[in-house]
Structures are given as structure tokens and as C-alpha cells.
UniProtKB/TrEMBL annotation:
Name listed for the protein in its UniProt record: Uncharacterized protein
Biased composition (Polar residues): 15-30, 230-248
InterPro entries given in the database record: HAD-like_sf, HAD_sf
Region (Disordered): 1-30, 213-259, 326-375
Length: 375
């Protein structure tokens, strides 16, 4: 029951009013965060058109390792649906109704996979429609750092270079370990270990270089390492020291350090494979975008699976429009801010976010004071 105020006491607001104000302040802070991704993590599968390749490769693999009467019947749509659920070949085969493989068959699978993939699949893989435009827009606008995520970083570097878009990618990072996909409830430690080992070192070095206004493209060292066969590609360059001879410079360095304190909520993860997104989403508050390659009426699209993601798109042009307001080619604001300007903008967004969080605390303190005054 609400306390009746005595003379000289302010009447306390209702619990509903208090909760409403607190929710509004919290919501504003979260909205500021979620509408301004600082990092775009795009799985290689989302940048490539792989459907024709998968339709050819999977039946060829099965024909090579299994007796004909052990190969289940499935359609092209079934194969694409299975690929939309998991990037792991064994999971795809299981989804298609393939019986468990014997030891010899598993060994044979490992032996023939790459031969069949490069012989039949690779020639059919092309850059996805809108992929080049998305990468170009990200580079032009200069507000979001871009990393491609791949299970084989060396192969990814080659594919992107051959497609003529390698220079538009800031770095190539390894994907989560394959074992992360084996469980419906992935261990959150796998995500956070990956985040700390790869994403944060790269982004920290990225901002250090940007603030130093270096000429080298962020991620060039990582892409080069990947091209040489390395599967671990975070940037580890020594940060460029800043001149802290006055307080203003020290404040700027401190703000820059704060801006580099990236959290998953400020990253947008894009993939055409559900498991890529689910494995990360279940462990953090990372923003997710599913680029569906199957019909919009498919249960995977209309069901609860896609409802757990922040965005579901049918083409990369939709993502470009969402991030940059560009529709049917270039549109919206095309002013290209340089790397130094980009980090200053990030610092400003961090300051605004911090102010929103302080507003939340102010609301809490005000409510506490009023409650004490009514006692």
C-alpha cells in the first residue's frame, strides 16, 4: 500500500511510474548501443554464392563413400536447407538422413572432400550479389570496422583476393572452433575465449592505427598472414604512441582507450548459416543477421529459429540499406570520413552511451531519495 505523505514530504510516485522511467532510461542507453555497431563480422559464406556448389558436391561425396542403396533420397532444397543450418559437413549429412559413417567411410570422406570440392564445387562459387557493394559501402562510409570470419582463413584470403574485394576487408578472423557447433547449448567460454583472443586484439590495433593516421590498411598484416597459410590472423602490431604532453592529449588518449573497449553488443555478426549465429548469440548479446538462402516460406524462416536474430535478410543489399541507407546503388550520405575521424566518432558515441548510463543511475538515486523521504 502506498504511504500517505506528511506535510513537507513530496508525494512518491507510483511503483509503475518509477519502473517506467527507469525502463525508458535503460532502453535509451541500449538503443544507442544496438543501433550503432562498431564492428561488422561477416562470415565468408554470406559473401559467396555457394548454392550451386553445394548441390553438386554433396551427392558426389555420398556417391564416392557410400554404397548406392545406402544413399538417402533428398532434393536440392533439402541440401540447401541442411547447409543453412550448419557449416559442418557431418551435420549436413546427418540432416539429410545419412546413416552414421563407419571408421573407414569417415577416413574416405576426409580423403575425397577437398578433391571433389575443388573439382566440382569451387568453379561454381562466385561473389554473392551485393557483396562487393556492401564491402565498398562499409569502406566508403568509414564508420564500421569490417572483418571476414572463416573456418579456413588462408582459403578465405585467396577467395577474396581472386574476387577483387580483398582490399575492402580490414582483416580475416578464424571462426569459432568446430566443436562449438556440436552442442545445442554451446559453452559460453568458447565464445568469450575467441572474442578475447581474436576480435579484441584486432580491433584494438585497428583503432591504434586509425588514431595514428597510418597509411597502412588496417588488417593488411592479418590478411597477409592468412594468405601465407596462417589460421590465426589477429592484428598484433605495436600501437603508435600518442603525444601526451598536455592534458588535452591525455584526455584524448583516455577517450580513445575507452572507445576501444568493444563489447559484443556493438558488433553485428552476419552469416547465411544458422549455427554460426546461434553459437555466438547464445553466449553473448552480440547483434546477429541471418542472410537466408532458402525460400521465405520455409519453416526455418517462419519459425522461432529466425525470430531470435536481430535481422533476417534475403539479400546483402538489404543489409547495406539497413546500415548506410543505400538503396539501388549508392544513396544517402556518402561523405567518407578517414580512420582518425572514425575513431573520434566512436569516442563520441561512447561518451553519449556513458551519459545514458549515468542518466539511468540518476533515476535510481532519485527514486531512492524519494522513498527515503516517505519513510
Amino acid at each position: 500500500m502506498e504511504t500517505v505523505p506528511t506535510i513537507g514530504h513530496k508525494r512518491s510516485r507510483s511503483a509503475a511510474d518509477s519502473e517506467s522511467n527507469l525502463q525508458e532510461a535503460t532502453s535509451a542507453a541500449r538503443e544507442t548501443t544496438r543501433n550503432a555497431p562498431r564492428v561488422l563480422l561477416v562470415h565468408l559464406s554470406a559473401l559467396l554464392s555457394c548454392n550451386d556448389a553445394m548441390i553438386r558436391v554433396i551427392p558426389a561425396i555420398l556417391a564416392d563413400i557410400l554404397p548406392a542403396n545406402d544413399i538417402p533420397s533428398f532434393t536440392d532444397e533439402d541440401a540447401l536447407r541442411a547447409f543453412s543450418k550448419s557449416p559442418i559437413l557431418q551435420h549436413i549429412l546427418q540432416e539429410l538422413g545419412v546413416r552414421p559413417l563407419s571408421y573407414d567411410e569417415s577416413v574416405r570422406l576426409q580423403q575425397v572432400y577437398w578433391r571433389i570440392f575443388y573439382g566440382l564445387g569451387a568453379p561454381l562459387i562466385t561473389l554473392a550479389p551485393g557483396a562487393g557493394e556492401l564491402l565498398d559501402a562499409t569502406k566508403r562510409h568509414g564508420q564500421i570496422a569490417l572483418a571476414v570470419v572463416a573456418h579456413n582463413t588462408a582459403e578465405a584470403a585467396k577467395v577474396l583476393a581472386d574476387a577483387g574485394v580483398g582490399h575492402l576487408v580490414d582483416t580475416i578472423l578464424p571462426a569459432l572452433p568446430a566443436e562449438t557447433y556440436a552442442s545445442e547449448n554451446p559453452d559460453p567460454r568458447a565464445f568469450w575465449s575467441h572474442w578475447g583472443q581474436f576480435v579484441m586484439p584486432w580491433f584494438t590495433a585497428y583503432c591504434d592505427k586509425a588514431s595514428g593516421e597510418t597509411d597502412q590498411k588496417p588488417g593488411a598484416d592479418a590478411a597477409g598472414a592468412a594468405a601465407n597459410g596462417s589460421t590465426t590472423t589477429p592484428m598484433t602490431d605495436t600501437p603508435i604512441p600518442s603525444d601526451n604532453t598536455n592534458n588535452d592529449a591525455s584526455d584524448e588518449a583516455g577517450s580513445r582507450a575507452e572507445a576501444r573497449n568493444l563489447v559484443p553488443e556493438r558488433a553485428l555478426l552476419v552469416s547465411s548459416v544458422l549455427a554460426d549465429l546461434s553459437a555466438a548469440k547464445a553466449s553473448s548479446g552480440i547483434q546477429t543477421c541471418w542472410f537466408r538462402r532458402i525460400d521465405a516460406a520455409d519453416p526455418l524462416v517462419t519459425g522461432s529459429a529466425s525470430g531470435s536474430f536481430d535481422l533476417v535478410i534475403g539479400g546483402l543489399d538489404e543489409l547495406r540499406a539497413h546500415l548506410f541507407g543505400e538503396v539501388d546503388g549508392r544513396g544517402g550520405d556518402h561523405s567518407s570520413s578517414g580512420p582518425a575521424t572514425r575513431c573520434k566518432e566512436e569516442e563520441e558515441r561512447e561518451k553519449n552511451q556513458k551519459k545514458e548510463e549515468e542518466d539511468v543511475e540518476d533515476v535510481r538515486e532519485q527514486e531512492k531519495d524519494e522513498m527515503m523521504g516517505d519513510c
